[in-house]
Amino acid sequence: MKSAWWKILCVLLLMYTVVGGFLFSVPRLNIVNETIRALYFHVPMWFAMVFLFLGSAVHAIKYLRNPSVESDIWSVECANVGLVLGILGIITGMIWANYTWGSPWHGDPKQNGAAVALLVYLAYFVLRGSVNNEEQRAKLSAVYNIFAFVAMIPLIFIIPRMTSSMHPGSGGNPGFNMYDLDSRMRMVFYPAVTGWILLGGWITTLRIRMKLVEEKIALKEDEKNK
Amino acid sequence: MKKINKILLLALLLLINPLLFAQDAEMADKMRSEGKIYVVVSILLVILIGLIAFVFFTDRKVSALEKRINELK
């Protein structure tokens, strides 16, 4: 429990996020109304996803430089939890869009880009599922992982900014720039992002520890069966 | 497993139902009342349900591992 400080921090930050997110004052805006508070829950999902996908790509590179089961497990589980957070991000985005844009799916460049990025990462797991040889699976998926990360960046961060998009922070819309300047919202937004990233990391480390134990059990089982 | 799928589907339908309901003009339905605060509530609920479901499946995997350890002994 010595290294549990960041888990405690995660819990405290998320509790603060929920309380502050629902109760602290926010700018009064038409159409958006109170849904602006979803900023503290929807956006951090994507922050955490990108953070985990970055971790996944880093461990993929690590694997290619120096193949080890550990690097492979890290890479897979970062991508796994990242994908879950991305799916949650897209569902919450659809709910939000329904009440502010008028329909859940607008074909907005940011929405489409995010959906394609998620499909690219879904294909990562399809690829892994289709190779039986463990070493080959790890190597192939590590290479694909780097491509997936490189593809995700323009899909989510560049293309939506180049075209017109209703999504705040994208082209043709000053969006949250004006809300971001609101220091009241920053007081909750930054802790929220940190808290959700920590939670994503926490769940990922649990999955990694589980997979490492599974690896050890498999080794023992092999020894026993010999 | 199938039971869980059914529960998840039901939860999803319950969440989507008010969304479909609110498609036409701004009526005084729940999701648009009180400055649309229930939209934020449902968003947080989706995140919680999603993460809890994920933790639940992880829990089952850990249980399976525990079983394998016990069989080794």
Give me a quick take on this structure.
The complex is a heterodimer of chains A (226) and B (73). With 226 residues, chain A is mostly helical.
Q: Which runs of chain A of at least 5 residues are low in confidence (pLDDT < 50)?
A: none
Largest interface: A-B, 34 and 28 residues
Instruction: Characterize the biggest β-sheet of chain A.
Output: none
Classify the beta-strand content of chain A into a percent band. Answer: under 5%
Distance between the termini of chain A: 38 Å
Instruction: Please bin the fraction of helical residues of chain B.
Output: over 70%
Count of extended strands of chain A? 0
Distance between the termini of chain B: 28 Å
**What's the number of extended β-strand segments of chain B?**
0
Number of H- or I-type helical stretches of chain B: 2
Largest sheet of chain B: none
The appropriate CATH architecture of chain A is Up-down Bundle
Specify the CATH class of chain A: Mainly Alpha
Structural class of chain B: mainly alpha
Poorly predicted parts of chain B: none
How many structural domains does the protein architecture of chain A include? 1
Could you explain how this protein is built, in words?
The complex is a heterodimer of chains A (about 230) and B (about 70). With about 230 residues, chain A is an all-alpha fold. Chain A has helices at about 5-25, 40-65, 70-100, 110-130, 135-160, 175-180, 185-225. Chain A has one domain (about 5-215): Four Helix Bundle (Hemerythrin (Met), subunit A). In chain A, helix 3 (about 70-100) runs antiparallel to helix 4 (about 110-130). The two termini of chain A are about 40 Å apart. The model of chain A has no long low-confidence stretch (mean pLDDT about 90). With about 70 residues, chain B is mostly helical. Helix content of chain B is about 75%, strand content about 0%. Chain B has helices at about 1-20, 35-70. The longest helix of chain B has about 35 residues, at about 35-70. The model of chain B has no long low-confidence stretch (mean pLDDT about 80). Classes of the chains: A mainly alpha (about 230), B mainly alpha (about 70). At the A-B interface, helix 1, helix 2, helix 3 and helix 7 of A face helix 2 of B.
